[in-house]
What we know:
Elements: H1 2-24, H2 29-59, H3 61-87, H4 101-119, H5 125-170, H6 180-203, H7 208-231, H8 238-268, H9 272-288
Amino acid sequence: MLEAAWWGFVGGAALLVGALLGLYVKVGLRVIGLVMAFGAGVLISAVAFELTEEAYQSAGGTAAALGLAAGSLTFFAGDWLIDRKGGHRRKSPVHGGVRQPGLDADVDSTKEAAKARASSEAPGQTQTKTRTKSRAKASATVSAAGASSGLALVLGALLDGIPESAAIGISLLGGGGVGVAMVAAVFLSNIPESMSATTGLKASGRSTAWIMGLWSLVVAASTVAAVLGYALLGGASGETVAFIQTFAAGAILTMLADTMMPEAVEHAGRLVGLLTVLGFAVAFFISSA
């Protein structure tokens, strides 16, 4: 159990490394996108060979298929709820999951002010008061969105990180030692994830203490998830273990497609495909060594 906790912590600690890079190292958006693409490729390889293939070989296709579907649907539902609360761009190096005053808010304010001017019947002081109220309303909307998105960002980070760490704990079952490729995949993918999100959080006005507190919470949760993945499944049947393995795989794949890869493509363009394949190949050869 201590070994599971240690490796879960190692995989999660990469989030702190990425956060520090995002806070103190000036990295271009294109570079962040490329690093995210590499990390995505690493995770895809680990999901395919360390989780799904192993589950299929040990318990057959039914358990693997059910696990993939359940994991994907669970993440999809959780992600949908988090998106509605303001966490839809939580991995963005620009937005950080928070509406930006220089983007959406000013557009809303401008539209409201224009509407007030068009519908106003009295010139002068009445128009001035209307514009002031519109701007105040827009400002209040931004503040409320930023406050509500804070919890969404925390929950989103947990939703993204827990399946990966649970997979690390599961890899220890059977006494064969930790899945090196799985740990490497989680570590290498966590750095660009937190680096990108931290850059966006910093740009959106979050404090250094808030950002580091967020990632410290996720690291702690990742450690616990790895322990639970190992402890709760120690005496489970092969079918149950296979189901949980592919449940984590389905959740991770859905996360990559929904939150990580779109950000990588937006900021790095066509080279994302090449870096994704490179990450996949590196992880594959690590697992095959």
